[in-house]
């Protein structure tokens, strides 16, 4: 078979690999039943669905006519580091800055990775997703997360160093993105 669309082919491969990885890792947790789900139930089925979606995308890349301009271009490492870095900073900030500050910062910082970045859209998404997170996880599932920041003196040494440093880096990146528009 000949690959007709490079982007779809490699996207399908990526979805399959990530989906199978999620499903395999989720099997180490208690699965439970559909009526009483364990911690591995949802990630397992999410991984299976992602792998199936990847298989569909991969199969469609092998059918039809060859598409023009579907070559894989230059990989932008900055985008990868922005997204992974914002998730890592969120994980570090959540206990110290609380949900109401950490989620909007995560959304705005990860939005910087988009080539079509818009501060208005990023702020709207941050407000909406903070509200959704509060409704789904705090009110809906009853999870316990700190909502407001704790005093700086109560932070761990790691957080006292990396949270302000990451905020400075993110603000500089945001300023550079806004200046470039």
From TrEMBL:
Domain DUF1468: 10-146
Transmembrane segments: 12-29, 41-59, 79-109, 121-145, 157-175
Keyword Chloroplast: no
Keyword Protease annotated: no
Pfam families according to UniProt: TctB (PF07331)
UniProt keyword terms in alphabetical order: Membrane, Transmembrane, Transmembrane helix
UniProt name for this protein: Membrane protein
The organism of origin for this protein: Advenella kashmirensis W13003
């Amino acid at each position: 078979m000949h690959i007709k669309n490079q982007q779809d082919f490699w996207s399908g491969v990526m979805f399959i690999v990530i989906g199978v990885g999620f499903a395999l890792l989720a099997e180490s947790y208690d699965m439970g039943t559909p009526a009483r789900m364990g911690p591995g139930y949802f990630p397992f089925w999410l991984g299976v669905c992602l792998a199936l979606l990847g298989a569909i995308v991969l199969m469609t890349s092998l059918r039809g006519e060859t598409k023009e301009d579907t070559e894989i271009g230059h990989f932008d490492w900055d985008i990868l580091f922005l997204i992974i870095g914002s998730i890592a900073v969120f994980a570090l900030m959540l206990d110290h800055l609380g949900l109401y500050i950490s989620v909007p910062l995560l959304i705005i910082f990860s939005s910087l990775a988009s080539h079509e970045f818009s501060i208005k859209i990023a702020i709207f998404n941050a407000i909406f997703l903070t509200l959704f997170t509060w409704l789904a996880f705090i009110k809906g599932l009853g999870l316990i997360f700190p909502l407001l920041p704790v005093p700086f003196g109560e932070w761990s040494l790691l957080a006292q160093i990396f949270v302000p440093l990451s905020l400075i880096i993110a603000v500089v990146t945001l300023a550079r993105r806004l200046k470039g528009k």
